Records
---
Amino acid sequence: MFHGNKQIIQKYDEEVVNGKNLDRIDEFFSDRCLFHGVPYVGMGVEPDDTSGDKVLVRQLAPGSPAQGKLKPGDQIVSAEDENGHWDTFQQLKTASCGQGKVGTWVKMKVFRDGQDLDFKFERALIQGFDFIYSETKDTFRTYLQKDYPDLKVSIHHLVEDGDLVAVYLTNMGTNADYNRQAVWDEFDIYRLKEGKIVEVWGLEDNFSQVKQLGYLIEPPPA
């Protein structure tokens, strides 16, 4: 057992992230640890494009316009708003149809149980997609083992206040898919209880990260 919440976070970054001792992850996180998503304007639909030819609904944000209408597993057939129409796999997987201003609308057609269903949503402020550690830890392992196998973090600031620990750090690693190295900053707040992480709020400079991997950032249609 490590002494002090700040030391626990430091050990986690040193031994799990940098040291790749992935069998020790469960020592640091509670199974019910809650990771908070970041807010945005949209419909509250997280797409799943892993099939390679269909875009499905992966999950719905609590309290979002799409909750209670769409269901996980629905196939998104098409979407449209005042700016455009999306109906191909490449168009729909970007989920750009869900973005816009609060109060503007999106029409969406989905395929469910052999039927085409039509919906209309008004965009709103979405609090983000929260997730539980025990349900996604395999994804995290894949990220450290395969996506960025040489990922290292450098801690710049580590501050403890009661049961909260704030850390500002820099990530550096080579993306296995593109064989390109990226460097990006990250800020996290951890809440700990009885020596384990039970809640996380985090922000990363993903814009800088994907640019370094070679993604082209293009403005949307006017």
Note: Residues 133-147 form the longest helix (15 residues).
---
Amino acid sequence: MSTILELTMHAKPGHFDQLNDAYTTMVETIEHDVADTRMILVVSDPTTGMLRGIGLYEHANVPEGFTNVPFFSNFMTAAEPHLTGPTERLEFDVHHIFFGDGAKVEGAQLTVAEITLHARFGEVDEVLAAYDDFLEYVKTNVSGTWVLLSSVDRGSGLVRGFGLYSDKATADSVMSLPASAAFAAAVEPLITSPLERVEHRVLHLFRGEGS
């Protein structure tokens, strides 16, 4: 089963570039040396100093092994002086994924819209089904959609997904779709807190062969 490894860090004021440099070095090593890497997406929120890396791997044992390899420990050593607190590490099972037509995706305007849902006990499958219906609609009706993904941590009921779009205007346009309001209404009774949606700036995108 494909797995998402998500690392979230917050840079001290004035330390974002150093943290980004350290993370970029590790990402380039993963892209070169880890054969099962399908995608790496690095996003940020410059206003808060947040840096998040989202790695998609073909098998669950790939991210599990990262704690035992030199490039990960080297990164943590390099990053630690620039962080406001501990790095948050989360792993998710991939539930749904869509890649665009394979054209090269690049440009300063790339935008990620991230959605987080906390499913009530016993309602995870219903939340995922509603989210997947929404993603299918976006895939078919919104041009400039490059990646759509939903993932889940069944132990906690956390469902997280994102859409990678060609620019901010395209990402924002999704919110005005009738399907967006219908999705929010469908999941509202199934979640413990309001749906969370945030947009991030894309710093780096790598797509492996076949992705």
Note: The chain has one domain: 3-207.
